[in-house]
Design goal:
single chain; two-stranded antiparallel ribbon; 8 strands; alpha+beta
Length: 209
Amino acid sequence: MASSLSPTSLKRRTPLENNNQNQGKKAHWSVALSDALNDESVRLYRDDLCTVIKDKFPKARIHLLVMPNQFIADLKCVNDTDLPLLKHMLKIGKEIAEKTAAKANATGLFARFRYGYHAIPSLSLLHMHVISQDFISDSLKTKKHWNSFTSEYFLDASDVIDDLQANGSIRTDTTRMKRLLGNELQCHQCSNTFATMPKLKQHLMTHAS
């Protein structure tokens, strides 16, 4: 499939260019996704436009990342010329999620997915999360983890596409988004609230069974 992506800029460089600049220096953890693009041990899918990998620290039983092969730092760097790419990423994310769930004989929340982006990503490379809604994982440890996937901090991929189509860019209220990470721990299924993550995670098992 041929790419119709816009030319690179200071914020849109290829992973190769970034790696060359960092040669001989230890890469910061926030750029780890650029290396993961070429790591066959975690790769599930790759085509001309995007790559799908397993999240190294999954926050649910199935947690995948869909990334463009061309380096784009984050949603602030996309414009309306990237609409075909984002639509393709969502399409591929859904297809790989369905195949992964079928292979695992997943049912219930284990086979129900959300697709989206963190409003303020911690990793430098645009990536769409594909995450099952069971949230059963040892890597789900903090309130920040929980709220980043269950509050409005998690930007639905379809909404991002609609916003980009309507406005030509993606803008978020970073102050408001940061506050969302401090929300109380509330179950995403029944709205019960909990004082600690262990209590919430114990409760989540009742929905996953």
